[in-house]
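Weekly modeling sync, notes
Attendees: S.R. (lead), two postdocs, one rotation student

Agenda item 3: backlog of single-chain predictions. S.R. asked that every request posted to the team notebook include the full sequence so nobody has to chase files. The rotation student volunteered to paste the first one in as an example of the format we agreed on. Action items at the bottom.

Example entry:
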Amino acid sequence: MPDQPSPVTAPVPPVAPAEPGREGFAAVLWDMDGTLVDTEPYWMRAESELVAAHGGTWTEADARAVVGFDLLDSAAYLQRVGGVDMDPVAIVELMMDRVIEQMADDPPWQPGAVALLDALRDAGIPCVLVTMSWRRLATAVVDLLPPGTFAGAVVGDEVPRGKPHPDPYLAAAGLLGVEPGACIALEDSPTGARSAQAAGCRVVAVPHVVDVPADLVDAVVPSLADVDVAMLRRLAGG
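Predicted structure, as returned to the notebook:
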């Protein structure tokens, strides 16, 4: 049998919003930054360094304001608020370089994340990464995990509209050929939770840097260490 392309590098199929069902439990859709890996401090450091290099000021409130944003939207904010005089794509590429550099030696997995991924794999429940980080950063993270941990990845540079729009989560369900309503999304930000909710997914919030309003989620947990397959099945009603 010829080799098949790795699902993490597969292109995202076209998406069309649909009225999702809410029955069953088909997949878990994972946010990356702040949910799977604690890269938010790395992004904040990269933002602060870049703004300082351009003579601007970057506050903690500014850093929190862009948590979960599409990276080009974050770049526009850095231009507008931080005074960064660079092309938006160049801003994103520079910050990704800095984040990859910081996490290379010791990936900052969130507590419970790897154990939950192992349990889902053992249970035969597919996972898709849904991140506003771009393909090369998502690939760098996925490559640190056992092969087959993720069935695919939807990334910020390959969707027509990023979070909080539903497109990323609709695309993730589409990769697996399942209804969004049969998926549970794991998110740490209001922006991501809005995206998953708008797509029709059930949402488990794991607040990290910012709080996630209760009306955006189906459950809130302090850590992924508090999540197991049985809990997700109960949440899905199956």
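Discussion: group reviewed the output briefly. The chain has two domains: 7-38+109-236, 40-103.
Action items: rotation student to repeat for the remaining queue; S.R. to check formatting next week.
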